[in-house]
Amino acid sequence: MEIKKVGSRGTLITFYDLGIATNIYVIHGKKYTYMIDTYLGPDIIKPVKDLIKGAHDKTPVIIINTHSHWDHVWGNSLFSGSIIISHKKCREYMQSEGLKELKENAKYQKGEVILTYPNLTLTDKLCFEEDHLLIWHTPGHTDDSISILDMADGVLFAGDNLERPIPYLMSKELVRYIDTLQDYLKIDAGILIGGHTACEDKKLAEDNLDYVRRVLSGESIVMESKEFEEYHRVNLEYLNQKA
Ligand SMILES: [Zn+2]
After folding, report:
1. Residues lining ligand 1 (ion), CB within 5 A?
2. CA 15 to centroid of ligand 1, rounded, Å
3. What CATH number belongs to 2-240?
4. DSSP 3-state of 39
5. In Å, what is the CA distance from 81 to each residue of 71, 76, 92, 116, 117?
6. How far is the CA of 213 from the centre of ligand 1 (A)?
7. Residues 179 and 216 sit within 8 Å (Cβ to Cβ)
8. How far, in Å, from the CA of 20 to the mean position of ligand 1?
């Protein structure tokens, strides 16, 4: 577990158990402490919970799930008494696909995972005015993806919509993905963080946008490395699947 302070009130916590970086981002607001994503299960999240509590004992914790995928939601059970926010579809996907994902990836769970669904859902946007925090629907990597903007620090947490060097496409609605990435470029944010990236800037959003546009146009794309060639091939395979 790596801990990095970001801006005046952010903490980026990065784990490497899956062979890639996976992030949790904490924003210490005046009214609430917001914890974005909960990673692989209660055992690995307990130290994070203690860390948050230790620093800001009286501030209630609000959990935000960026999307329904298992590598971002399994620690929810440790916060079953808290508000857990997601897009409405994220809750629905966890209800319909969560058990299957848990069975398929059970070896990665840290502690006994009890699927715990978001209990406050949005379809468009939600603003914590006094904490200067905006949460809004940003379809892209998946159609249930939401993003979080810390307006006080100019930090955008984009979930898996931002990925280095190219995003995984798990929704076929590429036009909406392009809208989302264009949105990111307009936002007043100097630091952009994805679910599996480091602290980035808008260059990564530009690069991801360029990639999605080229895929949409049907252009043939040559990746620099064999590994990323494989990512790209998986993306095309997904897009070509029948509905
Ligand atoms: Zn992910």
Report:
1. 71, 160, 195
2. 12
3. 3.60.15.10
4. coil
5. 21, 10, 20, 10, 11
6. 22
7. no
8. 10
Residue 243 has a pLDDT of 67
Q: Which one-letter amino acid corresponds to residue 39?
A: Y
What is the structure's pLDDT at 95? 98
Backbone φ and ψ of 128, nearest 5°:
-90, 90
What's the CA gap between 141 and 160, in Å, rounded?
A: 6
**Biggest alpha carbon distance in the chain?**
54
In the chain, domain spans: 2-240
Calculated CA dihedral for residues 135, 145, 86, 49, nearest 10 degrees:
-90
Taking 70 as the pLDDT cut, the residues of the chain under it are 54-56, 243
Distance 58 CA to ligand 1 centre (A): 31
Q: 107: exposed, middle or buried (C-beta count within 10 Å: 0-12, 13-18, 19+)?
A: exposed
The whole-number pLDDT of residue 56 equals: 65
C-alpha 196 – ligand 1 centre gap (Å): 7
